[in-house]
Amino acid sequence: MATKKKTKFMCQSCGYESAKWMGKCPGCGEWNKMVEEVEIVKPARRGGAFTHSEGITGTAERQKATPITTIETLQEPRIATDLAELNRALGGGIVQGSLVLIGGDPGIGKSTLLLQVSSQLAQKQKKVLYISGEESVKQTKLRADRLGVTSDHLYVYSETDMDYIQQAIAEVNPDLVIIDSIQTVYQSEVTSAPGSVSQVRECTATLMRIAKSNGIAIFIVGHVTKEGAIAGPRLLEHMVDTVLYFEGERHHTYRIIRAVKNRFGSTNEMGIFEMKESGLEEVANPSEIFLEERSQGAAGSTVVASMEGTRPVLVEIQALVSPTSFGNPRRMATGIDHNRVSLLMAVLEKRVGLLLQNQDAYLKVAGGVKLDEPAIDLAVSVSIASSFRDKSTKPTDCIIGEVGLTGEVRRVSRIEQRVQEAVKLGFERVILPANNISGWSAPKGIEIIGVSTVAEALKYALGG
Q: What digits encode the pLDDT tens for the residues 382-396?
C-alpha cells in the first residue's frame, strides 16, 4: 500500500493541528504561529521487527495485562558521575534506558557540562557517543582540549540526519548518547524544517524507542524561548523521563541545574556549579556562596532557609521601600513572585498598620535564585518592614514561616533541616512558626523563637 500525503497547519508553540490556516491558535492563543506542513501517512503495520525508524533491535510483541501484585520491583541501575550536584538533580545518577532533556539559555554551559560528563564516564570505561548538530568534530575537539577531555571511549560524531544517527548508535553501541541539540536534528521523511514541532516530536519519539529498547541513556539538549521555556511543544517535556533546566545569569559565574520532572527521583532538586576556565566545578556549600557578600547592619535584609527539593539553602532577601510621588506605587520583584509581594504588603498594611500605599517597593533574592515556596513569606514581610522603618535586623537571625491573609504565621515543612543549615552557617537565632516548635529537638547553640503573628515576628526581629 502506497503512502499518502496530507497537508495540515501546525502551531509552532503548542503543536495544535488544523486543516486550515488560522491567525490565532485555538490551543495556546498565540498569533501567527500556524505553519503549513506536509504529513506523510504510512500504512499501519501489525507487528514484526522494528525498522531503523523504530529502534535498533527488538521485536514488536503484544504484551498482556498483569496484576500489579505479581509484578516484581527492580531497583533501576544508575551510572554515577563525578559531579555530585548533577547526581543529586538526576535523583542519584543516570538511569540506563532513560531519556533526559536539558534546556538553558545560549552560552549558559550546557555543552560544556555534557562534555565533562562524557569524559568522566569514558574514564570509567563506559562508551559515550557525543553527537553534535551545531558544531563540527574539530570544534568539539577544541572544546575538549580546553576542558582536558581525552579518552578512547568517547566517540564524537557531527550529524543532523536521524537515519545516520541511528546507524552510528548501532555501530558504536554506547552506554550514553548525547544529542546537541534536538532542534537541529531532522527526519528525512518529515517535510518540515528542523526545529519545527513535527521534527522535534518525531525525532524525540525515535530516540525514546532507541533508549527503551536498548537500555541506552540519552541526553538531548533543547533550546529555550525568550520566556525561558524549552522551545517546541509541551509534548516534548511529557515524552522524556527527566527535564533539567540549566539556569544562571550570563554575567555571573554560578549556574543552577534544576529538575522540574523526574520519573526516577524527586522533582525540584537543585545542583549548583561555578563556571571556570577549566569547565564547571560543583559548589558543595551553596548557602555560604549566597551569603558571602551580605552587608552587615543594612536595613531591608533578611535571611531565610528555603528548601530546594531535599536540600536546605540559606539565601538573602533584600527589600527597598521608598516614598513615591505618583498615584500608583511601583511593586518590582526579582526571584519572587510579584503577586506574592503585593499580597504580603497588603497584609502588613491591614494587620500591622504600616502605611505602604504611598511607597514604592523593590525586592530581590541575592545570588539569582528563584524562590517560590510559602516558607519565605515571613522573611519577605520582615524585609519590607525593616526597610520601611529603616531598622536593620540582626545579622545572626534566620527567619522562616508562611503568612496568611489574617496576619497569622503558619507552619512549614522540613523545619529540622532548615534549622540545621542555619546552625552550620553560624546563625544564633531562628524565628519560626510557633506550631513548628513541638515534635523535634533544636540543636545546641541556637535560640528558637516561635511566633504566631506577623506583628509578633516584627517585634522580635526589629525590636518593636
A: 999 999 999 999 999
